[in-house]
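Quick one, probably user error.
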């Protein structure tokens, strides 16, 4: 495994600072605690990770085909194999933890990657270009290393899951290291502005996506509250009205037409 380096890159930070989530009250740790302390959510979360890693593997295979140099193609190919292995590990662990959940349905969902924005119609490398693609890899693998390190700590009561997260975290650190060195190279060749612009654009995009996810979730919560309020306000009064309203003696209301038909039938029968 290649060691992480932490050169000073100005406003886009260092791996050491961005990987530091050791505080017991860090936002990422607290959110992760809420997710992983609910047993029924663990296999579903891992099933989602399996799809994400499988999608990343395909993105890296595309990059290995389109990269301009043999060295980059080799690194992207190794990265793709790592992501494929991670997908398999998450699948196996999700199935091992699933107990009457929808885990198998999520794992077998062929539309999951497209419906959750994991894979697009064109390759990610083609859409972003070399610099922005490497910045994308660096940012996302850095985030993944932070998350999996925390997950390994939170899942200490489950040694198999904790060991899996630690193994994946080591791979993520290699991905962070090689993508950072490639960004160093591009910065020397094309100047700092090239890399800084790509990183800034991707960070802004991640903020927008996070806001949209929050808005969607918040909208679902608000809609649910309104439906609950409507139910509590409207249903009880009508239920009480139906309970205390006088019921008809025969259960059905007799109309003039029905009375005439009854008399006629009685006359015929007589």
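Nope, works fine. Designed sequence:
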């Amino acid at each position: 495994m290649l060691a992480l380096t932490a050169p000073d890159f100005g406003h886009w930070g260092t791996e050491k600072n961005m990987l530091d989530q050791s505080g017991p009250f860090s936002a990422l740790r607290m959110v992760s605690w809420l997710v992983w302390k609910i047993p029924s959510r663990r296999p579903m979360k891992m099933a989602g990770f399996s799809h994400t890693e499988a999608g990343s593997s395909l993105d890296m295979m595309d990059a290995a085909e389109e990269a301009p140099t043999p060295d980059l193609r080799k690194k992207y190919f190794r990265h793709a194999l790592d992501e494929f292995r991670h997908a398999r590990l998450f699948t196996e662990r999700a199935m091992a933890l699933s107990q009457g959940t929808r885990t198998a349905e999520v794992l077998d969902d062929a539309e999951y990657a497209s419906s959750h924005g994991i894979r697009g119609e064109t390759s990610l490398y083609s859409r972003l270009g070399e610099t922005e693609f490497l910045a994308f890899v660096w940012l996302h693998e850095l985030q993944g290393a932070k998350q999996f390190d925390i997950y390994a700590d939170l899942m200490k009561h489950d040694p198999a899951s904790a060991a899996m997260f630690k193994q994946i975290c080591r791979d993520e650190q290699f991905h962070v290291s090689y993508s950072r060195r490639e960004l160093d190279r591009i910065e020397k060749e094309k100047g700092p502005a090239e890399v800084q612009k790509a990183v800034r654009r991707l960070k802004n995009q991640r903020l927008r996506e996070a806001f949209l996810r929050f808005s969607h979730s918040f909208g679902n919560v608000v809609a649910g509250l309104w439906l609950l309020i409507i139910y509590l306000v409207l249903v009880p009064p009508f239920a009480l009205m139906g309970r205390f309203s006088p019921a008809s003696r025969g259960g059905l209301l007799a109309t003039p037409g029905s009375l005439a038909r009854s008399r006629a039938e009685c006359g015929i029968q007589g």
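Residues 31-213 form a domain with the Ferritin fold (CATH 1.20.1260.10).
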